[in-house]
Design a protein that fits this description.
The structure holds 2 protein chains of 2 kinds. In chain A, a hairpin with a 6-residue loop joins strand 4 and strand 5 (about 50-55). Chain A is mainly beta. In chain A, strands 2, 4, 5, 6, 9, 10 and 11 form a 7-stranded mixed beta sheet that branches. In chain A, strands 1-3-8-7 form a 4-stranded antiparallel beta sheet, with no helix packed on it. Chain A starts with a strand and ends with a strand. In chain A, about 0% of the residues lie in helices and about 50% in strands. Chain B is mainly β. In chain B, about 0% of the residues lie in helices and about 55% in strands. Chain B has strands at about 5, 10, 20-25, 35-40, 45-50, 60, 70-75, 80-85, 90-100, 105, 110-115. In chain B, the strands form 2 sheets. In chain B, strands 2, 4, 5, 6, 9, 10 and 11 form a 7-stranded mixed beta sheet that branches. In chain B, a hairpin with a 2-residue loop joins strand 9 and strand 10. The radius of gyration of chain B is 13 Å and the shape is globular. Classes of the chains: A mainly beta, B mainly beta. The interface of A and B includes residues 35, 92, 94, 99 and 106 of A.
Chain lengths: ~110, ~120
């Protein structure tokens, strides 16, 4: 199975300041189709996960443009341009390139 | 609007059984592979099982193989997870997930608690 590793596991941030989360996979996430199926999810307390970014850098419908994704191969990054109160919660990277799906451990973003 | 609504979660004793359902709406259910993902209290996300669009191909995590069975009824737009021989470690929120080439949509989840 592909192992997904996130850093940091906790990120206290100041409102209005940027935040960045890294995700590394144990194997390349490039699919035979040429696409890379790396997604970012956000989970608020008591809520289900919701998709933010898919295929490395594509924002899902309704996701604010302060969220951006980048990377390639085995190294990926989620950036929040200016953190807002509603951005608190846990962020997960997720790969669906190879069966079985695997997830990072999660990064908890909280306001300082 | 795409909607996935899970139901069937409950408190069950070790060794017991439950059947989870996921009612899908707002999209052509029969065109999509579907997935179950679970999250133990305070823990991360773990893939449990998947089924292809016509139900002919299924896969399971090793931890649930031979105990859980995924199925679907495309006429009823419903996904199922039959869970037998339940263990304490199966305690989790169970999410139904639709995926289309990396674009995943998640249901609200249904809680399963295995305890005596």
């Amino acid at each position: 199975d592909i192992v997904m590793s996130q850093t940091p596991l906790s990120s206290p941030v100041t409102l209005g300041q940027p935040a960045s989360i890294s995700c590394r996979s144990s194997h390349s996430l490039v699919h035979s189709s040429g696409n890379t199926y790396l997604s970012w999810l956000h989970q608020r307390p008591g809520q289900p996960p919701r998709l933010l970014i898919h295929r490395i850098s594509n924002r899902f419908s309704g996701v604010p443009d302060r969220f951006s994704g980048s990377g390639a191969g085995t190294d990926f990054t989620l950036k929040i341009n200016r953190v807002e109160t509603e951005d608190v919660g846990i962020y997960y990277c997720m790969q669906t390139t190879q069966f079985p799906w695997t997830f990072g451990q999660g990064t908890k973003v909280e306001i300082k | 609007e795409v909607q996935l609504v899970e139901s069937g979660g409950d408190l069950v004793q070790p060794g017991g059984s439950l059947r989870l359902s996921c009612a899908a709406s707002g999209f052509s259910f029969s065109n999509y592979w579907m997935y179950w993902v679970r999250q133990a209290p305070g823990k991360g996300l773990v893939w449990v099982s998947q089924i292809n669009n016509d139900g002919s191909n299924t896969n399971y995590a090793d931890s649930v193989k031979d105990r859980f069975t995924i199925s679907r009824d495309n006429a009823k737009n419903t996904l199922y997870l039959q869970m037998n021989s339940l263990r304490a470690e199966d305690t989790a929120m169970y999410y139904c997930v639709r995926d289309w080439f990396g674009e995943s949509t998640w249901g609200q989840g249904t809680p399963v608690t295995v305890s005596s």
